[in-house]
Structure formats: C-alpha cells, structure tokens
Design goal:
Layout (H helix, E strand, L loop, with lengths): L1 E2 L8 E2 L14 H17 L16 E6 L2 E7 L12 H14 L7 H5 L2 H14 L3 E5 L2 H12 L6 E5 L4 H9 L3 E5 L4 H10 L6 E6 L11 H11 L2 E5 L14 H5 L5 E5 L9 E5 L1 H10 L1 H4 L6 H16 L3 H18 L11 E7 L1 H13 L2 E2 L2 E2 L9 E6 L6 H14 L4
Parallel strand pairs: 4-13, 6-7, 6-8, 8-9, 9-10
Antiparallel strand pairs: 1-2, 3-4, 5-11, 10-11, 12-15, 14-15
Helix pairs in contact: 2-12, 4-12, 5-6, 5-10, 7-8
Bound molecules: pyridoxal-5'-phosphate (PLP).
Amino acid sequence: MTTALACGLPTLPSVVSPPMSHTPPPTHADMRACVRTELADLTAQGRLRVRPVIDSPDGRVIQLRAEGGRRKLVNWASNDYLGCANRRPVKNAASRELRRFGAGAGAARLLAGGLAVHRRLELRLARWLGTADALLTTTGFQANLAAVVALAGDPEDVVLLDRGCHASTYDGARLSAGTLLRFRHNDVEDLARQLERTAGARRRIVCVESVYSMDGDEAPVAAIHHLCRERGALLVVDEAHALGVLGPAGRGLCAEAGVVPDLLIGTCGKSFGSQGGFLAGDQELIELAVNRARSFIYSTAAVPAAIGAVLGALELLEANPGWPAELCAHAVALRAALRTAGWQVPEGRTPIIPLIVGSEDAALALALALREAGHHAPAIRPPTVPEGSCRLRLTLTLAHTEADRRRLVAALTLLKPAI
Ligand SMILES: Cc1ncc(COP(=O)(O)O)c(C=O)c1O
C-alpha cells in the first residue's frame, strides 16, 4: 500500500518492514537510554555544545552571559562584516517593510507567501550581481540545499564538492538524487581527475566557496570555472563570505575574476546584517530551482523586516563602494600584526583570520584567556574543522576600531608564549 504525502515525494510505502531479529524490540526506555549515552559520550569527549546567550545586539561589543555574571567583550565572532545589522538606515528599512507587510509572510512563496518585497529584493540582487534572475530562500543554508537538490535530480548525476565546503552544501548533496564525490581543497588537478572519471554522468555539478568559512582562503575560481566549461560541468559558487567583502564594490570574488558561475549562492546573514539566502543565475536554472528545490518550495518565505534590512544594506553598500577595500586593508594589517606577535597566520586579505593551535584543549584555553582579556573569539573544534586543526576564528568587521585591533594584538602577544 502506498500513501501520498504533502512533502513533494510522489508516493511512499506506508509500511516499512523492520529487519528480522530474534531479540525483543527495544522499549521506549531503551531508546531514551540510548540518547543519554550519546550525550554522555559527547560530554566525555568535551564536545557537548551549549547555546551562549548575548544580552545585547550583535555588535562590536557584546554582553555575554557567562559564569559569574555578564561580561562586556569585544566581539570577534560576528560575520556581520560591514556592521550593517546595527546601522540606522538598515534598521529603518527593516521597520518600513515590517509596517508595510506585517511580521511574517504567512506561507511558502508558491502557496501564498510571495510578497512584493520578496520579488523586489530578487530583482535588486539580480541587477546588483548582473544575473538574469535570483531566488530568495529563508536562510543561506536553504539556498545551498536548494541549488544542489535542484541541479542533481537524477541518480545518474554527480555532485563534486571541495572538501572545505560548508555543511549546507554537503547536506544538499546528500539530500539530492545524485552521487556525492569530494575533491581536495582548492586542488584544480584533483578536480580535473574526478571530472575525467565521471565523464559518463548525466550532469556533473561542481560546488565550491569563493572564500572558505573556516580558513578565510580564496578559491581559484577562474581556473575552476575554465575547467568546468571545458569538461561540460555545471559550477555553483557559494559567495557567502565574499559578498560585501571582495570584488568591485563588494560584488564578490566571481565578479572580481570575471567569472559567471551557473549558480551563485549568497546569504543575507553576513555582510547584509540580516537573514535569508539566495541563488542568482540565468532564467532557466532559477526556474528549475523554483520547481525542484524543496527547501524553497516547502518553507515559509522570509519575514518582510529581514528582506527590508537587506534592501537597506544594499543601498548603503552602493553608496559606500570603498567599504570592502577598507575592510580588507584592515584585515591585511591585522594579519601582519599577529604574525609579528609570533602567530602563524596565513597570507590573505579576507576578514576571516584563523589562529590554528591544534588541540581542542589549546583552543579552549586560548579562548578562555582571551575572554579574560575582554575579547570574544570562541574555539572552533571538530566536527566543524578537522581533528588537530582546532582554532580561534577571528572575524574582523568595519565596526571594530583601531583601538580594538591594537588591544587584540596586545592580548594575543602576551598569550603567545603560553600556546
Ligand atoms: C559558506 C557558507 N555557506 C552558507 C552558510 C549558511 O548561511 P546562513 O547562515 O544564512 O544559513 C554559511 C553560514 O555559516 C556559510 O559559512
């Protein structure tokens, strides 16, 4: 017997045969004990995550709730690179759309939730990026799910991911109908080998980020684009950490390299200081995503205030085209100062600055010591980064002052001998 479900899948069997077993089936208490064991394992490994609480806006300085009360800390953990979340024109634009369209969209876009403000932002983003169209999703995570699921819709498709890709792209590949393959990080030759091996696939979809979220390094997008065109593969570039940061007036690394990927992915949660995600590309691929991307089709559209904030941030960015270069200049100077202080900081210009210390204990100890010195930069550990590469991930924003940067370097200079 089969049952139709409101999930976009045609039909599913209503009865799934359990595996044959001679032992009695586990009870509800057994299931809960199993959950407790999993949590106890995480605790024993020191990997049980908790949700920090901040009692202030996410700005340059935050009020973090910590043991012993609230701590006022300089915040080195925000991806709001241009400090847009707290700029008055951005907040005003958010409240304008909130007043005009209400607090929520009420439904998914294809059902009844498509408001004029959603379409306005799509067209604005497309114009800004020079693409034919764009498609909004409620988060950047959903945008990556949407792109990969839509493009790899057949078991004969292959999704080739850079090993450094974000969890959302991995999950998109796993949820898609295609086969997931990975190539070595930023290794164009390895990608070429894998494209050679998969020449018989119906579609090959190559997914990269232009700036990688944990290392802050840049992808060789021109070489990857050239290879994809030569071998007939589709290219998806996630510009989450490059929009507002790199390229002409912040239009990203692809724009800087003169590359037009098949789909460009963005998030509104970083440089635009708001929330949401989008795919930008030509009419055909956007239409495919509208019809196939389950994370778009089956999710309530973004709230009008969030969309308004992005419109406000885009206007600000267009009025201040020098902001991205200014941010990168500060990032280059901060990287150099940290190197002078004895830290091994990779060459680069992006505001994601990794301080790789190796072990989890070292990363946790460094984060704690920095907090005592008045700075917030949490330790990043597996599974977010590979074993042995635990780090502090410092993110610089335009909201930071010269004094903030100087004090951070001074604190890290004192802490270096202990690491
Ligand atoms: C590279 C990359 N892509 C996508 C996302 C997801 O974006 P969002 O936070 O808007 O869901 C992130 C966020 O961490 C990211 O770093």
